[in-house]
């Protein structure tokens, strides 16, 4: 089974994202924000992988 990717015109993606957020409770919004912050922090502080050349 192929995975369905969420690719569409940016305006449609934005509208879908906004609708998804509106359906969330404040607690769910907060948890999503904290997950984004945590991922951002991990990426910022991840060890750099360099090409051996």
Write the layout of secondary structure elements.
Elements (H helix, E strand, L loop, with lengths): L9 H13 L3 H19 L9
Tell me about this structure.
The protein is mostly helical. The chain is 60% helix and 0% strand. The chain is built from 2 helices and no strands. The protein has helices at 10-22, 26-44. The longest helix is centred in the middle third of the chain and has 19 residues, at 26-44. The protein is flat and about 45 Å long. The chain starts with 9 loop residues before the first helix and ends in a 9-residue tail after the last helix. The model has no long low-confidence stretch (mean pLDDT 88).
Determine the fraction of residues in helical runs and give it as a percent range: 55-70%
| Proportion in β-strands | under 5%
Quickly give the structural class.
Answer: mainly alpha
**Can you tell me the overall shape?**
flat
State the total count of DSSP E strands: 0
- Major sheet attributes: none
CA-atom Rg in angstroms: 16 Å
Low-confidence spans: none
Average residue pLDDT: 88
């Amino acid at each position: 089974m192929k995975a369905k990717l969420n690719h569409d015109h940016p305006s449609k993606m934005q509208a879908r994202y906004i609708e998804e957020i509106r359906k969330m409770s404040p607690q769910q919004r907060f948890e999503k924000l904290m997950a984004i912050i945590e991922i951002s922090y991990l990426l910022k502080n991840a060890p750099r992988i360099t090409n051996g050349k």
